[in-house]
Each structure stands twice: as C-alpha cells, then as structure tokens.
Amino acid sequence: MKLSLEFLGSGTSVGVPAIGCECAVCQSTDSLNKRLRSSVLVRGYDDSGALKTTVVIDTSPDFRTQMLRAKVKHIDGVIISHYHADHVVGIDDVRRFNYMQNAVLDCWASAASHASLKQAFGYIFVENDSVRFGLPCLRPKQFTVGQPFEIGCLRFEPLELDHTIIINSGFRISCGNSATLSYCLDVKRIPEASYERLAGTDTLILDMLREKIHPTHMNYDEAMAAIARIKPKRSYLAHIAHEVDHRTLEAKLPPEIRLAYDGLIISID
User: Fold this and answer.
1) Average pLDDT, integer, range 25-30
2) Residue 178, helix vs strand vs coil
3) All structural domains of the chain with their residue ranges
4) How far is Cα 225 from Cα 229, in angstroms, rounded to an integer?
5) Distance between terminal CA atoms of the chain?
6) Which of 172, 171, 167, 173 has its CA nearest to residue 187?
7) Is 2-264 in CATH node 3.20.20.70?
8) For 29, phi and psi rounded to 5 degrees?
C-alpha cells in the first residue's frame, strides 16, 4: 500500500501575495510564489493502486478554491491540527461534501481545538447520521497525543508541537506497510518526546516561515537544525511567507530538501 500528500496551500496566514504588498515576491509572476493558506490532502491507495481513502488536514480560508483546483469530489474525513483562523475558517465549505456524499463526516481534533470549534462553529456538528440541508454535518472525534487513530486505510499518530502561543498537533502518517510521512507545520520548538517519535521518518513536512527569526514559527536555520536531528530521507519546507522567493532559496538547498509549492504531490511507498 502507499500514500500521497498534495499541498493544497503552502503559504503563511496572510497568503502570498499579501494584501497591499509591493515586495518582489508579492509582485512576482512566478507561479511558485503564489501561495494559498496551508492545508494538505492525504490519500491512501491499496496494492493495486486504487484510491481507498482521502483525508484533508485543515480547512484554510482558501478551502473552496483548493478543492476546486485539486478537483476533489470525495473526502473520508477532516483533521484539524489546531484552532488558528488560517487553518479552520474554511470549514463551512465541507457542507458540499456532505451533500455530494449524503453522509456525515468525522472531524478529528484535540480536545482544546474541538472546544474552540464548538464555540465559533457550533452549528457544524451533529450527534447522529442525519445530513441537514445547507449545513455542514461533522461528527466530532477527539484525538490524543501518542494514541494513533485510523481513517480508512490511513493511520495517523498525533504529535505535540510547540507553536509558542498554542499547542499544535503534528502527525506521523502511514498506509498499511508503507514508509512513514511526518507532517509538522506551525511549530517553533519540537518537544523531546516528539523528536523521539519522528525518528525513522521517510519524508518530513516541516514549518519554515522565512530566513529571519519569528516568535511562533521555525525560520530557515531552525528548520535545518531540526532536519539534521530527525534525519529523514527527504524533507519539504512549507508554511512559507512572502519574504521567500521560491527559486532563490531552493537553489541553496541540498537535493533532499525542497520547498513545497501549491499543487505539489509527493508519494510514499
């Protein structure tokens, strides 16, 4: 079995270009410098290559645009990594999948994230299997750090990440006997226990906002230090700000470390 991950968005909270900015990256015509807010689509396949499970991690403000561009017509579940606006406020648009599939969908999140979601978007949750017309229909499912859960053929192990102002969740992901992909965005510091769980990761998706230090996100040097410690076979840097020109920074990177970009799909066997 194998899995794939598609970057629906690779940008930071304001997106790139940023509103009103006239910097070289925001004014660039290079498609690699056009970044929607961060979200990914994880797909699991059986041994014949048939698609079995599709899961979206985070519902960014650009969720509708991302689903249209990726031509997604079916999802099997939603995971919310943490309650920050750039990762959740597109959640209302999940209702299209409820309508098309005529089914309630599971929404996985930590206890803290669920509490915030219920306060801000209480109308999206249901306790039964009834699909309501015109409204999202999500069944709340709680995950706990260190306790894996499954959605279809995909297995997710939540990891704790220190985002300075909030505790975020990363995920160690596999499909059957596939190699492991680890997804760690919105992180400033990785706790020791999470470093231990990241050992043996084949492919690492890691936060890297920009080269300059930032209080809540890893910068370039911090991301490079984390990669050197985890030692994945390959890494992709994401959640990228408008201070980063894609081609300029990627030219400095070793071949096993790349910058993510919107629409990029990576596969794990």
Assistant:
1) 98
2) coil
3) 2-264
4) 6
5) 7
6) 167
7) no
8) -95, 0
